[in-house]
Design a protein that fits this description.
About 80% of the residues lie in helices and about 0% in strands. With about 130 residues, it is mainly α.
Length: about 130
């Protein structure tokens, strides 16, 4: 859920910045530098649109990552898409491959490493 809070914070900051820029754009449009005003009017929708597109693509990838995880380990069906926002589908696929190798090795199988343990390990190294 931490990722959702970050997204909301960034979204609120973008909206406040957009409103501020849109509020000052008419001052430039009515001055001897209208190009700055037009740049603001073009830049704000571009910024908001690219953020929305990123969020949509990230949600779609998180959904794909969830489907991959559930296909391999149905016991994770209780997890929501939001739980996979920190993981890309490629990262989940790589963790599934490692998980399958660990399951085949009897010595490593005794460690009881789950797919979620493998997913969380790279994130712990980044922090």
């Amino acid at each position: 859920m931490n990722t959702i809070y970050k997204w909301v914070a960034v979204g609120v900051a973008e909206i406040l910045l957009s409103l501020t820029l849109l509020a000052i754009a008419p001052m430039f449009l009515n001055s001897d530098k209208p190009a700055i005003g037009f740049a603001i009017w073009l830049g704000v929708p571009t910024m908001l649109g690219s953020s929305g597109l990123y969020a949509a693509l990230r949600l779609k990838d998180a959904q794909k990552a969830r489907q991959l995880a559930i296909a391999k380990c149905p016991e994770y069906s209780h997890l929501k898409i939001v739980d996979f926002l920190n993981y890309s589908s490629a990262q989940v696929a790589q963790s599934i491959e490692m998980y399958e190798v660990l399951q085949e090795d009897p010595d490593l199988n005794t460690l009881n490493i789950s797919l979620l343990n493998l997913l969380e390990k790279p994130n712990n190294d980044e922090n």
